[in-house]
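Interim report, section 4.2 (structural modelling).
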Amino acid sequence: MLMDGLFASLYRRLARRRTLLLIITLFLWLVSLAAFTRLELEENIAAMLPESGTASSDLRLLERAPFARKIIIDLTADASVSTDALIQAADRLAAELPRETFSRVVSGPDGEAGGNLVSAMLGVLPNLFSAADAERLSRELTPSAVRERVNDSYAALLAPEGWALKQLLRSDPLNLRQLALEKLRYLRLVPNAQLSDNHFVSSDRRHLLLLAETPLAVTDSAGAVALEDDFSTAARLVLPDGIKATFLSGHRYTLANATAVKADLWVVLGCSLSAIAAIFAIFLRRRQALWVFLTPVLVLTTAACAVALVYQPVSAITLGFGAVLLGISVDFAIHVYYALRHAVGDPAVALGKVARPLLFGGLTTIGGFAVLLLSDLPGQRQLAVFSVAGIVTALLLSLLVLPHLLPSGAVQIISAVPRRADRKRGGWLLVTVWFVLLLLCGWQARDIRFNGDLRALSLTPPELRQLETQLAQTWGGLHGQALVFSFGGGAEAALAANDRLFERLQTALPAERLVSLAPLLPALTSQAENRQRWNDFWTGEHGQQIVATLQEEATRLGFSAQAFVPFTERLTTAVAPVTLDFYRAAGFADAFAALLFTEDGVTRSLTLLPDSPPVLAALTTIESDPATRLVSPTCFRSEISAAIEDDFLRFITLAAVLIVTLLLLLFRDLRKVVLALVPVASGLLGMFGVMATLGVEFNLFNIIATILVIGLGVDYGIFMVCREDEKSDLGTGQAVFVSGLTTLAGFGALILGQHPALYSIGVSVLIGISVAIPAALLVVPVLSRRWLK
Amino acid sequence: MRLFLAITLLVLLVLLTCAPLFAAEAEPLFERLEAAATNVRTVTSAFTQEKRLAIFDEVLTSSGRFAFAKPDQLRWELLEPVKTGFVLSGDRGRRWHGRAGTSESFDIRSDPMMRIVAEQLLAWARADFGWLRERYQLEVLGENPATLKLIPRTEVGFLDHLKIIFAADDTHVQQVEMHEQDGDATIIRFSDAIINQPVPDETFRN
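Predicted structure of the assembly:
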């Protein structure tokens, strides 16, 4: 009663200063609007990743995958087009692409990988001579094998290529170069690419790969339009008939999502506004009732500014989700509207009566959202501040400002639900059916699955999915590989860790599945060990025997005594360590830059593996090294799924405890508490059960929608219990019904959206609220008649 | 001394003015060879190869067969003392090593070594003076039979110069001498040439 008097008194006082109140409200809103337009927004999805785990850093590391930031251009030729023509077309396209959008285009290794590479690799072989190499040579270089290899050298000298191979064969009659060249296979970043005229072509020679860089941010949708336009224009200008070109980069996903959201907005807004207009025309009818729908707009800017006071920068994703949650705020305004319309006599009294359930509802909703402050996801903590500030603002507006803008006085209001329908005998039948359905939903809800795949949060159009598949089939795993980072304070430490990793991986995985620098650029200490091993091998008994056999076989074939002096000299001549510059000069600068880099003072060497369950299982058996870190899309998804699940369960549990506690404090009656929880429990069980039955996975967006269902469901329960409790009706049933309808119109319409985010929120709200409303309007009254007698 | 300098200068001037004349005078010969080659669609012949290499105590002699069909089909096959060779059709080919019983396909776009070999053989077979002049300075050593000396315009590592002798009827190359910078030499003599007779497609497949 104290609360009733307080708000009635406030209403009377403010009514005398109505103009001033409205001016102050308008001023405050304009201030918040000005601040809102200056907000620094961050679009990084990392805000929605758990902080305590490794998810955020894993995401950053996943973005270091060699092709994660590249534009992949695929040229496809008809059978009638020759490889020459394809290569020429690719070169013309690369030259035609504007440098403003395609800052660098690469068509193959950055230099002639052939030429002197063979002899150069042979020259550095002592630095790369691993224990496995020594064991292999010991095993393979038997006297008969030496004879075969000398015979091969002899035959090669007679063949035309012998013209150019003579010096090489003198330096390497035993084909040790093969050992060195095989190490280059660990550098195959594009597994299925072959080189043709220094261009990446597919094995069927119908595809050619170009890799491009761009200065445009992946999130820049306007830039993405420019990128697509420039590409189409260049392709149209230079590509002949029979050759098509397409490209894949993060920008295309950004653009597809932005376009889909825009298209969805027209559909969804059209449907929502039509539905809300229909609700207005049927249930509200008065021009002043439009103020009700302005409440969320006023609340949005204020809540956003409140977040900015606590967090900088504000997550754009939080703001988007928050705007959805403000659907709750319109309900408070609807209840005030109905209370005033039902007022008989002094509107202040009616306002006082509605203030109690309104504050109860507001407090429990605030409590529910406050739980999010404990979330592991920084974005959800921002969301908590946003929602709490928004609901407080909505309460203040609804109770202090809105009553002075709305009409008052008893009018006949179209009743949506027969007030006495629940008194009929059919009421208990309804409750029984409701209970059975809830049991069924609860049973089904056990199968609900959580999906941590961040890609599920965005739209991938069929053409991009098809392109992904085509690129994967043509070129091998350009994306989605598991990454193992070996790191240290400098290149030497990182390479040493990389050497240790490679040694362990070799025992667990087939060599052809690895991309690693370890066989090509070991740490200096490893290189010194390799050189020592090389010397030991050739000065050892087996090595000396190999050299002796070589000399015998050479004499037999007529070679002069000096023929293989370059070889024997090479065996004992000291060589300098191999360096990064050596490979840069050999044409591998890009590949090495992708696999060895320094950021924030930490040098990382990257090893690539297939992101498949057997490989990941094999990795778990490898002894862990504190200087290495595995990151894989599969592990990342699992981690996020687990984090979302944990966070969600914690949220639900804490919210339940807090809401029940608040309800106990407010009602001081366990039966009323149970009754007030009927709509929210029904809504949640219905939502989980139906989603599980339909196979809809639970993602981050569904969690936000769940919060909305909880907030609204509790409010419905409180209003209905208060109505039954106070034995007076201020149009509560209609208010609950209309607010439920507006929620369904506003958010349920999102189900028509193509974008996964809109659809996810829409489907959850649609199911949850569709179950919560009948539970509030039909079940609560029947139960309360029985329990509150 | 002044007289010596004057004579030297005079000689140099004469040589410099004559150099273009030599090239200009050579043009009719090149045109003659190109004209003869225009009518050649196929060539098959036997060859012997002598390798005079410092790394061998003796001259290495080998023999084999050669086939060419316009525009870009080749077969180069050693039969003695080892069986080895390659075929080429367009950009792609296959080479084999008879002793080991192995063979492998190649593509001259991704195999720089085979590209050099194929380009050389095709240029000689087609008398492609456009291609040859881009890479070599051509010097006419004799007109009947046409004998040319080819000096690489850029450093190609091992090669000092080539000497090519054409057949009397200009239709094909009769002898190629490859002289290396270290004094080694390879001489290939073509014999029993058959011109413009049908060559089965199988010849260029293996």
